[in-house]
Amino acid sequence: MTAVPRGGGRAGRLILAATSLSALGDGFRYTALPLLLLAVGAGTDTLSTAYVVNSVPGVLFVLFGGLLSDRYPAKRVVVLVDLVRAAAATVFTVALVLGAVTVWWVYLLIFVLATAEVVYFSAIQVFLADALDRSDLGVVNGRVASVTTTANSLAGPGAGAFLFGLAPVLPFLVDAVSFVAAAVCNGRVPTPRRTPGGAPVGRTGPAGAVTLLAAGFRTTFSDPVLRGLFAFAVARAFAAAAVLSVLAVFVVTERGLPVSHYGYVLAVGAVGGVLGGWLVSRYGDRVPLWRSTWVANIAFGLSFASLPLGAGVPVIGGLLAVNLAAAVWTAVLAATHRQRVVARDELGRTSSVLRLGVGVATVLGAAAAGLLGDVVPLGGFFVALGLGVLVVCAPFPRPPRPRAEPPVGPPGGARAERDGPVDVTA
């Protein structure tokens, strides 16, 4: 097999271009939607409902997304999802031009795009594994995380607010165009007819949907490394959702900072996410997976527990930057590990099992913040959340003993181990 240049070659560049374009459009929309809701007279109850609508598909459809990605070529699924998102954004744009948009139109757009994103999450994990050489996965995963954070949290929001000020329709129009451009880029990514391990890409066999989904759970929880990474991710997701859902109250109300400073805090924190993606793309394959993940989880917990010490943008934003850098580092290493050791015909479902756990933890974390945020001081609440992450992660500094063989696919499925077992301690 011809060696692929480090960084993924043409496939890696096209995937990064597609990710950058769609993430930038997403950043425009993330800023424009709340502004649009406020423009039509929405209150806090409407905004919170929009958050719930955005979260529901992550619980309802995530397993379906993983199953779809395993039964059909991932490239086809990714391109189809991009086109569906482009169509939804286009219809919304036309409705906005015609003056027909109501709050329910906004809810519908959020629901459709969130559902498509759930499918996209599982499909892109398989797509990367299909399109890239095994040695390039860590680099490209890190770059994808970095450009996504840059577009979503730095470039996108400011530009989206500017475009909305010019004309409310512009952010949504750009979002629709970005999805079309992403579909074109992803469609041009060269992918092999067969995975490196020799497994055919396509349907996994006659096994029923329930059997196939059960295999995804079995793969996740029977492997000690995957099981540990799952537990770490769920703990981080619960804490992050609880903190971020009330962070604005902490910054503006408890610390008495101007509203604009909340935006500054998020911007400083986003720099940490970009830095984390850059670091893991350069050094993620050079350090032990489990030990570096353990250190990052400790940093994640300590940064939340230290938030009460912050009184201004530099400290609060700096702690948030450390937190996001640690989160990106751990998420990228975990995704790369799954792509390298999980059978091709189980990768989508295994990724969706993680997404399900994270989705449930996110909803529960946000609910906990809503219930306790007015009862206990937020500073103490943040300390408890940070300590909770430490309790889950700190006792396990050494990696569990990995299985000698990769997970076995479902009945009738193909086994697709790539290039032999991976030593997770190296």
SSE topology sketch:
Elements: H1 9-39, H2 44-60, H3 62-71, H4 74-97, H5 103-131, H6 137-166, H7 170-187, H8 209-222, H9 224-254, H10 259-283, H11 289-305, H12 313-341, H13 347-372, H14 378-393
Helix pairs in contact: 1-5, 1-6, 1-7, 2-5, 2-13, 3-5, 3-13, 4-5, 4-7, 5-13, 6-10, 6-12, 8-9, 8-13, 9-11, 9-12, 9-13, 9-14, 10-12, 11-12, 11-14
Largest sheet: none
Number of strands: 0
Question: Beta-strand level of the residues, as a percent range?
Answer: under 5%
Helix amount: over 70%
Q: Specify Rg, calculated over alpha carbons.
A: 21 Å
Form type: globular
So how many helices? 14
pLDDT averaged over residues: 79
- What fold name goes in the CATH topology slot of the largest domain? Growth Hormone, Chain: A
Distance between the termini: 24 Å
Task: Count structural domains.
Answer: 2
The CATH homologous superfamily name of the largest domain equals MFS general substrate transporter like domains
Low-confidence spans? 1-5, 193-206, 405-426
Question: CATH first level of the largest domain: which class?
Answer: Mainly Alpha
Which series of helices and strands comes N to C? HHHHHHHHHHHHHH
User: Which architecture of the largest domain per CATH?
Assistant: Up-down Bundle
